[in-house]
Amino acid sequence: MVFMSIKYLHQPQHFTIQGITYKIRVVNGFTNNSSLPLVIWCTSQDGDIGGRALQEGDDYTWYARLSFWAPTPAYSCTLKWDRARIMFAPFKVLKGRTPRSCGTCRKCLWLVKEDGVYFSNDDSKWVKEISWI
Where does it sit, as one GO cellular component term (predicted)? Predict the structure, then answer.
């Protein structure tokens, strides 16, 4: 573990004194949701981080910071649209690994559409991860 930490410290583009910062963004990608907003509510192990009612094209963005001396943040969100609900983890770190597949740009991007929830780390290649039930 010490060896891994020292090696990581020598990569300045990924480390600051405050830690490594990741962008988490959830976008309402509906094309025809009329007067029904997409409602999102998120929490972390530290408590409630809040929610929003998103109209078409609106987004909910926050940042997670990883550091060697603080607990690793994990977030869970509930999406509600009409009568459908989805719960998912937009940012989760498995012990000894990097967060999800957030990539070298450190972005966890989510696009919510009528048929489900899509993930990307570069805002161009989207992979469907969850379907509305």
Answer: extracellular region
Q: How far apart are CA 62 and CA 68, in angstroms?
A: 20
The H or E element that residue 32 is part of is: none
Please indicate, yes or no, if residue 111 is contained in any of the structural domains: yes
As to burial, measured by CB atoms within 10 angstroms (0-12 exposed, 13-18 middle, 19+ buried), residue 9 is exposed
Total domain count for the chain? 1
Residue 11 lies in a domain: no
Write out the residue range of the structural domain in which residue 48 sits: 17-131
Determine, yes or no, domain membership for 32. yes
Residues 66, 99 contacting (CB under 8 angstroms):
yes
Would 22 be classed as within a structural domain? yes
Cα–Cα nearest to 91, from 80, 103, 70, 81 = 103
Query: Quick one: tokens of 38?
Result: 């997409």
